[in-house]
Design brief:
The chain is α/β, with parallel strands linked by helices and about 230 residues long. The chain has two domains: about 1-20 and about 65-105 and about 150-230, Rossmann fold (3-Layer(aba) Sandwich); about 20-65 and about 105-145, 2-Layer Sandwich (SIR2/SIRT2 'Small Domain'). The protein has nine helices and nine strands. It has helices spanning about 15, 30, 35-40, 40-45, 50-65, 70-75, 95, 155-165, 215-230, and strands at about 5-10, 80-85, 100-105, 105-115, 120-125, 140-145, 165-170, 195, 210. The strands form two sheets. The chain has a six-stranded parallel beta sheet, sandwiched between helices. Bound molecules: ligand BJW. Ligand BJW binds near residues 39, 106, 147 and 216.
Length: about 230
């Protein structure tokens, strides 16, 4: 029997219960840091040390964080469905929980790329990326992430995945950042959409979507158990 194709679209709320901060919640990263000083190409030009420090701190936190119950439940869901995960998160907690198909829209914290050659991407050994870490052509390595104002190269495959989905699960994203948020509107007609987020989604046109207003670590495992036992 053909397995149902379930596409998951996750954001920072997915990893909140692993101890990683979201961006726009009241205690989020953008309360503590000015986004324009750490997550834009202009910030990189103005102060590389500051940008590297911001990502080094987050990388150190990630190395001690663990996947939570929601990450693990999505990995278990693969026994029953063809699961594809599109994540805006730069952490690797979906992979560490055991999920196989994970597409990172906004890059990966544990990778660096050359500031002179976007095709030169390497894994970061440990947590620190510092000034003087260069690619073989001598260009400074930068975090392998997508900053505001930069193109999102993985949008095309992500749109394809969503268009092919039989069901879409949207987990822990405020749907404020484009073009990523627009993915929700790429689902086929009649495809069920379920949103897991304790926050309000009043700013976003969710249409017929079901909104489960509970933390992911609580709601996703329950949803997966119900789906598996159907
Ligand atoms: C829980 C929970 C629990 C809490 N369980 N849930 C159209 C309209 C308007 C603006 C634009 C537009 N198109 C483009 C733009 C500009 C811009 C943009 O979107 N700006 C808006 C903010 C206004 N977009 C861009 O610049 C993008 N690039 C682009 O458009 O390029 C065009 C181009 C084309 C060709 C050439 C050149 C350019 C790039 C966007 C890059 C985003 N980068 C960041 C940072 C980098 C990575 C990093 O440092 O981590 O990505 S910003 C940040 O936001 C990060 C995230 O991936 C992203 C999304 O955030 P997310 O995941 O939704 O987090 P939060 O905090 O917002 O929400 C958390 C949610 O969790 C909340 O709802 C909580 O309730 C919930 N929650 N606990 C479940 N336990």
């Amino acid at each position: 029997m053909r397995k149902e194709k379930i596409v998951v679209f996750s954001g920072a709320g997915m990893s909140a219960e692993s101890g990683l901060k979201t961006f726009r919640d009241s205690d989020g990263l953008w309360e503590e840091y000015n986004v324009y000083e750490v997550a834009t190409p202009e910030a990189w030009i103005a102060d590389q040390e500051k940008v590297l420090h911001f990502y080094n701190l987050r990388r150190r936190q990630l190395l001690t964080a663990e996947p939570n119950a929601a990450h693990r439940a999505l990995a278990e869901l693969e026994a029953k469905a063809d699961v594809r995960i599109i994540t805006q998160n730069i952490d690797d907690l979906h992979e560490r929980a055991g999920s196989i198909s994970v597409l990172h829209l906004h890059g990966e914290l544990r990778k660096a790329r050359s500031s002179g050659n976007p095709n030169y991407v390497v894994s970061i050994d440990g947590s620190e990326l510092v000034r003087g870490d260069v690619c073989p052509s001598g260009f400074q390595l930068r975090p392998h992430v997508v900053w505001f104002g930069e193109a999102v190269p993985m949008m095309e495959p992500a749109v394809e995945w969503v268009r092919e989905a039989d069901r879409l699960l949207v987990i822990g994203t405020s749907l404020n950042v484009y073009p990523a948020a627009g993915l929700v509107h790429e689902v086929g007609q009649g495809v069920p959409v379920t949103v897991f987020d304790p926050g309000s989604m009043d700013h976003f046109q969710l249409g017929e979507a079901e909104h489960i207003k509970y933390p992911a670590g609580e709601a996703v495992p329950k949803w997966v158990q119900d789906f598996i036992s159907e």
